[in-house]
Design goal:
With 155 residues, this protein is α+β, with helices and mostly antiparallel strands. It has a single domain, classed as SCP2 sterol-binding domain (Nonspecific Lipid-transfer Protein, Chain A), CATH 3.30.1050. Helix content is 36%, strand content 23%. The N terminus is likely disordered.
Length: 155
């Protein structure tokens, strides 16, 4: 079997990859390959798929009656990147693929490879935070419990 580093990520249709398979792919890729993928033409497609699936992987019972806006900045270099917002309210998670003028309760900033590792269950939010790979602004308690609101795949 070929190494995952030999997988043609540029043509892989991430829309057809199940969450557990996605987690396995991320786990098997070198940091260099993840960085290459997330700096190439597939970046936005991968991010759109991940954020799009947040709606279906959301666990309303875990969030309870919480009403929170979370702003995610997936950095690309020092200044650039993509911004998504997730709004948890009324037992649902809605996603906006851009920054809005609303005030978030929590803002999270991290590099794309770290984001992919986090959302695929291959990295821990606290570890990323304490190693300064994840920047948190706002409600730190919300940040600490955020992973419990989603059915995060396991590799």
């Amino acid at each position: 079997m070929a190494s995952l580093d030999d997988l043609d990520l540029e043509t892989l249709d991430f829309g057809t990859v199940e969450p557990n398979e996605f987690a396995r792919i991320v786990k098997g890729l070198s940091a260099r390959r993840i960085a290459e993928l997330m700096s190439g033409p597939q970046r936005r497609r991968v991010l759109d798929e991940v954020f799009g699936r947040m709606r279906t992987l959301f666990k309303p019972e875990a969030a309870g009656s919480r009403d929170a806006l979370i702003r995610w900045r997936i950095a690309e270099g020092e200044e650039g990147g993509d911004v998504y917002e997730t709004h948890i309210a009324g037992g649902a998670c809605t996603v906006t693929p851009e920054r809005t003028d609303r005030t978030p309760q929590l803002s999270l900033t991290m590099a794309a490879p770290d984001f992919l590792k986090l959302v695929s269950g291959n990295a821990s939010g606290p570890t990323l935070f304490f190693t300064r790979k994840l920047k948190v602004k706002g409600d730190i308690r919300l940040a600490g419990g955020l992973t419990y609101f989603f059915d995060i795949p396991k590799a």
